[in-house]
Amino acid sequence: MLNGDVGVATRNVCIMHTLERIAARFNEAGVPLMVLKGGALNLTLYERPDERPMGDLDLLVRIGDLARVVALLEELGCVPGEPLVREDFFPRFYYERDFSLGDIWPVRIDLHARPFRPLRYSRIVPEEAFWSRAEPVRIGQATFLAPAAEEMLIHLAAHSAIHGNGRSTWLRDIKRWVEGHARTLDWQRFVDTVESWGLTLPVRVGIKEAQRRFGNFCPDEVIRKLFGRRVSWRDRLALAQAPRDASHPVAHVTVDFLCTPGWRFSLEYLWAMAVPGREHMGQWYRWRHRGWLPAAHVLRILWPIVGRLPQIHDRFSKVDIRDGRAERNGVYARKDFQAGEVIARCRGRAVSIPTGAPGWEETRFGRTRRYEVRGRLACLDRSERPNAKLAGRELVALRPIRAREEITIGRSSGARERAGLNDPLAATSAA
Fold first, then answer.
1. How confident is the model at residue 312 (pLDDT cuts 50, 70, 90)?
2. Are residues 63 and 183 both part of a single domain?
3. Paired residues of 23 in beta bridges
4. Alpha helices for 261-358 (secondary structure H)
5. Reported pTM
């Protein structure tokens, strides 16, 4: 392996050991466990541990098993991430919940009750999708399930499109999967399943972008069939918005409301977003007094306006910006953060030539742009042992962070930064 790949291999080996532990415990408990994306691909497609970077584990479980699954993960020492909008938000309105396992080399676990977002797909993709033809995969002394060949391709293509085809890794996965299963893929079953699950648009967008990047690898007849299927305006609107969800929350909620089948369900979703639970509101408002909950709701409603005022922003921020060392500023935690918790949401500016400042990439309508952090968080320091990472606009804790501890992100440069990998410990956005 090249020196630049040692970190990828080390991180992957660490994650796969974690997967074996989890799979073994689920096997003992008799709970079905499916592994998606990198975790499954590294055991079924890629031969070397440095070929396919992983940042986290994507686990899919049946909704009826969720209570047992959460208990098993907590028994193994997994810590849940930031509280969602309401206690019942997952799995009813949101497809996943994140956990973290380990303190020194923390592994992020994305626990899926459904395979995809946005909310539209949680209603139209059947609950048994991926389960009926799943195949066992062995890891050490344990086993887990992985989607059948046709359904794995559906997941890879749809996932990439939903996230704006923003990673070359995801597109390469599509190509490599087709090439590796060229003799066994049942293309008619693939096309029929895509249509029956309502995923025609994201699957064809994902495959089209992969072929644009790497050349043709799917049969022309399959492409003609996919592009010959009709898609509704709701499909188009939901997929156009999906890559922008994190940076445009109001549009995110509006599009989910408009595009999700079932008007009663959509109204319940709108109410849940409008009136979050106490645990979530506690993240907005640190002080506790008799009227703290109404005060927190008022702050949340007015935040798009008052949050732009430096005095208000500083008072309610979860971080301090102050001198870290004599020659520079630093970002420090005002409270304790759990692994996976969102510390702050950054303001950014698109740049054509990277300056080396902390930043991220966003892909919209097939165009990838680089954004660099502006404002107070621009002084984030880098470290060989970071405790946080940038996941798009969000600054997320990689491990538990104590109040008054400096918050640092990983060192990155060149191709590794463009691939979304900061270092072996912080490469959590490439899964």
1. low
2. yes
3. none
4. 263-274, 278-284, 292-306, 310-316
5. 0.77
